[in-house]
Design brief:
alpha+beta
């Protein structure tokens, strides 16, 4: 489970922290930095897949097919650009909790993009675990982008084995070499424990046309755009509890009185979902409304089988959802994330959505914003805004958000210099 994300000189963020809980909501105006948070989490997800820095940022192809879409702007686009100069390096720090041992960890990676035409390289990287005095591993690049290999130590002891490349995260190299017993067992154990928690991230950008398409039997994980919806629902319906979860929530979230699901097989052996209502009315996935399909995708992803620790990121999660159903959507997310090892991070422009959060979820609601006289985006927990707690008790938080009070409050209480370019 991720607990905190720290970004330094990363895209629009000069120095920003994001606190994360079971359900974390980001609000803010357009171009305030919400999408850059997605890019930071995707960078971490790319590390868990064992990719080179250049592949994480630029894309990964295998056998002529795109396996991984690079991060917007490529490697040079990841650097914070101030008024007078561009930063030399960017860094991402992740604090989290290991699922198996419940120990807390901190992972840090600092990257130097190098000169145009050169591969980006790691400048500094480490992993620490609560209760263990020295870093599990520490990697340094003494020559910035010039060094092909890193100086690596394990719990303070200099690495005496093979060299570690500077163009691929060391945590990935530890896992690869651990298969051949070339790294300390403890380093392998914690490197695996940390990255496994990052592997099951999904960045949902649902496309109803893809959700309508038949899918292959046996698919248990919904695609980022909603692919495989029919087969994932079929898998869920193999258990009585899975079917009951789907039916009860689709009844709550839509006007349809769905009682059952039917799955037909086409000539290619693919599955197509049919929704069956109380009076026997059948609605094929082909004919279902965009809103119904979005609801189905959200419910299905949260109840998917076969995966333990997962993080979902939904951009503008309220899109296509009627305002009278928003409270049910929030109830669903809060229920599932409280009962399972699932995190949801979402963005919204809806003031009403803020008003529907439970007190626990409101603790992890944050504002992304830009001040008029500063080039960098910033993040602040809403309840850390001066006087926010008192005003929220007295007034509707939706009204505060709608009126622009959140942005006004951080502007008038900001006590930092307008543009500290010297620290870039």
């Amino acid at each position: 489970m991720l607990k905190k994300l720290h970004l330094k000189n990363f895209k629009g963020f000069k120095d920003a922290d994001l606190d994360l809980g079971n359900f974390s909501l980001l609000v803010g105006t357009n171009a305030s930095g919400k999408s850059n948070v997605i890019d930071a989490l995707r960078f971490i997800h790319g590390i868990s897949r064992g990719y080179y820095i250049a592949e994480i940022t630029g894309g990964k192809y295998q056998a002529g097919a795109l396996q991984w879409r690079g991060i917007r702007g490529g490697i040079q686009g990841l650097l914070f650009k101030g008024k007078n100069r561009t930063a030399d390096n960017f860094s991402i720090k992740v604090a989290g909790k290991l699922l198996a041992s419940q120990r807390e960890y901190e992972y840090y990676i600092e990257v130097n993009p190098s000169e145009p035409g050169e591969a980006p390289r790691i400048f500094y990287e480490y992993l620490t675990v609560d209760g263990i005095e020295k870093p599990i591993f520490q990697a340094k690049n003494r020559q910035l982008d010039k060094a092909e290999q890193l100086e690596v130590s394990f719990q303070g002891e200099e690495n005496k084995g093979l060299g570690y490349r500077s163009d691929i995260p060391v945590i990935s190299q530890i896992i690869n070499r651990g298969l051949n017993s070339l790294v300390p067992k403890q380093a392998l154990q914690y490197a695996n424990g940390v990255t496994i928690g990052w592997q099951f991230m999904q960045f949902m950008d649902l496309e109803p046309d893809l959700m309508r398409q038949p899918s292959s039997p046996g698919q248990q994980l919904l695609g980022d755009h909603g692919e495989n919806l029919s087969s994932v629902i079929q898998e869920l319906c193999k258990t009585q509890q899975g079917k009951e979860n789907l039916v009860s929530w689709i009844q709550e979230l839509t006007p349809m009185d769905v009682r059952d699901f039917k799955f037909s097989i086409d000539l290619n052996g693919k599955i197509l979902l049919t929704l069956i209502e109380k009076e026997g009315k059948e609605t094929l996935a082909y004919s279902a409304s965009d809103g119904t399909l979005r609801f189905l995708a959200i419910i299905t992803s949260l109840f998917s089988v076969g995966y333990t620790e997962r993080l979902y990121f939904w951009d503008e999660i309220d899109t296509g959802i009627h305002p009278t159903r928003l409270h049910l959507l929030i109830q669903l997310i809060e229920y599932v994330t409280a009962e399972n090892d699932i995190q949801v991070v979402a963005t919204t422009h809806s003031p009403q959505l803020l008003n529907l959060l439970s007190p626990e979820s409101l603790e992890h609601a944050s504002l992304t914003y830009r001040l008029p006289d500063r080039p960098d985006a910033q993040i602040k927990r809403i309840l850390d805004i001066p006087d926010a707690r008192r005003l929220i008790e007295e007034q509707d938080i939706a009204t505060l958000h709608e009126s622009g009070w959140l942005e006004d409050a951080v502007y008038f209480t900001d006590d930092e210099p307008a543009a500290e370019e010297a620290s870039v």
